[in-house]
Amino acid sequence: MPIIDPKLEEPARDMLGHAIRGELHELATLIQSVGGEQYRHVLGLCLTAAAYIAVDVSGRWPTDADVREIARLTAEREVELPLDQADVYDYLSDAALGFQPLPEALGDDATAATLPVLITASMLFTFRPKDQKWWDYLDQIWSAYETAENLDPSVLPALQVRARMLKAVAAR
Amino acid sequence: VAQDAKIAGQDKTIAELRSTRIEQDERIARLETDLGRIAATVSELRKRSDDQPSADIGHRARGGEAERGERAEPQQRRRLPTDAVNNVLSAAAGGTLTELAFRIHDLSPEYAGIGASALTIGAGIVAVWRERRKAKDDADHRPEA
Which of A98, B27, B38, B67 keeps 20 to 30 A from B8, CA to CA? Predict the structure, then answer.
């Protein structure tokens, strides 16, 4: 099974960690040290993780109301950074789930170059499952994408049925 | 006389058919009204369900001041599944689709520099914001004299 390149995953994880701990100077230094090419991939991974979290917490492809609620809670529960609810909404709705280019979704290059890491970090911490650390949740997200990469989309209905079965059994 | 009786019979039949037709028209009109009402209700229900966020979202949300301590924990490296560990040397980026979907190659190579500068400048503003937030939080939780 192909895995996400550790050369990209490790700096992405470190950046998310700095953002969660509110270590902005350390985050800036790390971004500068990895360089443009690698940082583009980190932004791609952040978008991918944010999309997963949005779908995971909504339990379906997120509706507009779902995205607004996720944005509200992300901004409200963040204590290290002043995140704007509207920015989180734009990032999720237009970029992560709408597949628009980042500068178009977020308005300008400075915002597009910083917010994906900050917002994804905040979502990762806010919406991690109760029994998991945020880095375990990140492991789960990457493993899920690696598994999904080898599957045909026709598997999705079966996966949905299986998920419902597990829920029903757990509820008994 | 027979002709008159025949014509009278036909008139009666025509009158009955007309009456039946009127009844049918009324019934169709009533059905259409009912259908319209049902369609409006379904559309309203659908709209209401789209306007409501999934209840799961609120249940999953954590963070806030109560969990500030957990933020400080240094993160752990990725724990790879065993079969992936065996394949780690032949690892691929695994992100061709991601790159295409998010068009990350369209992003300027200057993004690392732009991002780092923006964060360095923003750090000062964030420090002020944290101070204010902490002061507000302290004030909110200060016991009344």
Answer: B27
